[in-house]
Amino acid sequence: LTVSARDGGGLPSTTNAAVTVNILQSGSAPAIFERSRYTFSVPEDTPEDSPVGTVKAREPPNSLEVVSYRISSGDPHGRFSIDPQFGIIRTKTQLDHESQSVVVLTVQSQLGNSPVYSSTQVNISVIDINDNPPVFLTHSDRVTISHTQPPGTAVYIAHAEDKDSGLNGAIKYSIASKQSNAFSIDPNLGVVNLTRTVFADKQQEYTLHIAAEDSGIPPLTSSLMFDSLAVKIVILDINDNSPSFMSSPLSYVMEDVEVGFLVYRIMAKDPDEGRNGQVTYHILSGNENKAFVLDKITGLLTTAQLLDREIQRCYNLTVMALDDGSPALSATQVLTIVVLDVNDETPVFLKQLYEAAVRENQDPGEFVLKVEAVDRDAGPNSLLRYEILPGPGYEKFKMNPHSGELITTTSLDRETQECFSIKGSPSRSSTAQLYLTVLDENDHNPMLAKTQYQISVREDLEEGSAILDLFASDKDDGLNGEVMYSLIDDTFGAFAIDSVTGSIVTTKALDRETKSQYTFRAVASDCSTHLPRSTTVMTILIQDVNDNVPKFEQSYYKASVWEGQSPKTDIIQVFATDLDSGLNGETEYSILSGNENATFLIDSARGILATNTVLDHENTSSYREMASSHRLVLLASDCGTPSLNSTATVLITVLDVNDNPPVFSSPEYHIHVKESIPVGSHVTEVSANDCDAGTNAEITYAIISGNDRGHFHLDGKTGSVDLMKTLDYEDTMKFTLIIQAT
């Protein structure tokens, strides 16, 4: 038997118990316990060998055997013993309520040496004794609070544990030693609260010793020195002062200084303590071109790049001094840095970088852009001449030396080279960067990596799963090169494609038995109006999962076989079909039950059921429903992992062969009658039995000798013998009739 347990809330046990019941043939009755369940209680500090309780089983009436007792289960640690003669249960070892509060024993009684026994359940409650003091999980802790916290603020929660139960485990908290009346503790919850503000206190740190006591009798308390909890409460400074600048808001620097030159030192002070008084420096605005670097710790301001007074004569930097408090406080100052002039005038372009775009596939001479430079000098030195400096692709362009106009010298192809970076220079020393972009024409189709794909996926793939990410490349740019994906054939609602990413996903649950293969086309096209595109053929093969149970053609079969047939005689062939493929669809047959003594066997592959022994119609056996039939349960299992199966029932009737002669109930019948009985009187009745069945068991009776004068008549069907003539004792004292049963 398999026994499961379930509590009052409906939660089942994690494991089941296997119970084996052996049925013994015994004529003796067991000794029965007076109660089916005993309940005792014992304190956990009870000494060893102390009595707990007594169980009693009564022997059957008139029994001379002695009842003995033993503990059969429920005490794996040997905490209890039982007097085998009197049934007194005693403690065997020291008990502990905290490790086991309830013990459930099964006690058996046995009458003498009889194999039959009875059992009772003994529930022993181990009563808790206050033997465990409260214990703090940690002996010290540290918390920080702001000195502006109001009275009633919870600053700490103390927690101790007591292994005892009930009142023995109920804990009360108290402050055993404290340096101030600023704190109190909730005795039940252990919450430490402020009783007043500490704003005016000069003391910045408090240490509270918290003790825990249980509610047992007598109560147990955590020791002050060893088991109490020392809580250090630190009062934090409040950030109530902003930094203030000490340095001047004006500084000067020459325009030809090197990168990294120290320009100025910014200084600010904050009277707060600790992190509240630590100041860092930051540039908020005015340094958009990254000309300066400010060390946030030291306040040192240095150049990050070369300065040019002709570009920018002064800088107005908004500088912030920020403390590290929470919330942080700050102050700002506008620092003006004046750049002093050096004689370095040269021609300069109006822009350092020129950008333009030109269409590809245009004839030579196409206008691209015009550059322009200025020189602050006067006279001939201000007359400018433009030229292109040698570089990659510069031969494809020509610049007018006087106007600065740039034109093409050949037809351009964006796919060959999309961008050109050209330097133009006036006759002295200034240079400008020309960045030219060739505009795209939609002259390339999207290209998929393959013209066809074959993918295998499992049929139990979840809906929405990605099976393939298509990727197509398009050499064009912009909308001409943005690829969109789509499906143009019927996928029977099973697949869809993300138009942007090309990810093909399932849109419903797949079933190989319904459809094992999908073939459709995927298209990649760009977003231009001409819609160039490329196509690939998708073949999706659905892999089989063992999700179909083998099914017999019939759930119930009937078959018959003549008794006496030789072993291996075929009786019936059963068939089971499995819609799965491969090993998942291969079916094996076996006999699940009803085949006691291995009377039958089945071909595991073909499902042919045959005899394994010579059958006897007349033989009776406990496993058969009737003397002439066998009921077998057949199992059809597939070869998948895990294997699935189904069952069918076969009723096999063993047909009778006339192989048993009739047998009289008695070899001789002795009948005494009076000579005066009237003719027609019933004399006796003979009976015979034939183990065969049907017509083979129908018996006919006949007198074959001893009735020469016809005194008696025998009914051939019933075996009834009647008197046909008057008897005369003086004539014949005895008749011997020979009767035959056929």
UniProtKB/TrEMBL annotation:
Gene: Dchs2_0
GO molecular function: calcium ion binding
A Pfam family matched in the record: Cadherin
Protein name, per record: PCD23 protein
Primary location class: membrane
Taxonomic source organism: Smutsornis africanus (Double-banded courser)
Keyword annotations from UniProtKB, A to Z: Calcium, Cell adhesion, Disulfide bond, EGF-like domain, Glycoprotein, Membrane, Repeat, Signal, Transmembrane, Transmembrane helix
Gene Ontology biological process terms from the UniProt entry: heart morphogenesis; homophilic cell adhesion via plasma membrane adhesion molecules; tissue morphogenesis
UniProt keyword 4Fe-4S, yes or no: no
Entries under Gene3D superfamilies matching the protein: Cadherins
